[in-house]
Each structure stands twice: as C-alpha cells, then as structure tokens.
Design brief:
171 residues, six-stranded mixed sheet
Length: 171
Amino acid sequence: MEESSGRKIGVAVDFSECSKKALNWAIDNVVRDGDHLILITVAHDMHYEEGEMQLWETVGSPLIPLSEFSEAAVMKKYAVKPDAETLDIANTAARKKSVNFLIPFLITVVMKIYWGDPREKICEAVEHIPLSSLVIGNRGLGGLKRMIMGSVSNHVVNNVACPVTVVKAHH
C-alpha cells in the first residue's frame, strides 16, 4: 500500500459555491490519513501597511493553521474573509474519523494566501509548496467572459506538473 504520509493536497478556494464543492469533493475523494490539506486562496488586491506584507506579495502568506484562519481578527490582517460554510467544511475535515472510528484520522488543514492573478499564483503555489495534487473548481463562465479572462482552471491544468482535478460546478 502506498505511504500517504506527507502528501500535500491543494484546493483552490475563492469562497464561491463552486470552490466549496471542490473542497468537499477533495475531502471525500482525495484526502487520506496523514495528508496536509492546503486551501489556496488568491486575493485580488493587497492593502498593506506592514513591511512583511510586501514580502508576502511575491511569495504568498505563511501557511496559516486552521485555528488561526477560523478567526476573523487574524484574517483581517490578510484582508481575506473566509465564509462560514468554507470554515465549517475545513473544521469538519480536520475532525474526520477513520472508517472504523477507532483510529483517529489525522489531516492537517492550513491556508495559504497569494495576491495577484489567480492563474499565475495557483501555478506558483503548486510549484513552491510543492503540492502532490490540486483540486480546483470550474465556475463555468460564459463563452465571452472566458474568452476575455481565460479560464483559471484551464490555465492551471495546462501549466502545472502535478495531477489536477477539475470539479465542475454543474453536472
């Protein structure tokens, strides 16, 4: 059996319904005992007053433990507001038990925040963390919007080395 300890499973989250679906899918289908579940979020604007924030603009935030990213006061300094449902999904995943309920199912849940273009920053995250695999939602933008903006999931699938699973918003 493959040793799962130390796998780093990334899920791109923007707190939309689609990203919550991707997060749930990753927890139900990918995450195993001993894995690190890393929620990757990309904020568009950075409003920094502190010097350390300038550093983070290029490398992203430190890995933020679940206990910290669940606190609004902590997240305020990153200018990111995770919604209650995403936090609930993450907290439930961290408490998940193994199938036989006798052995604790241990996964570490952390968040990493980047600032900038989601297409570029998610690709950077895959390389720098580095991730074993990535799960990303597909919002299903309309044709014109996709043509102008480009699909984030499409860009990521074509530009990263690790396996990527795209979870569709609608079946």
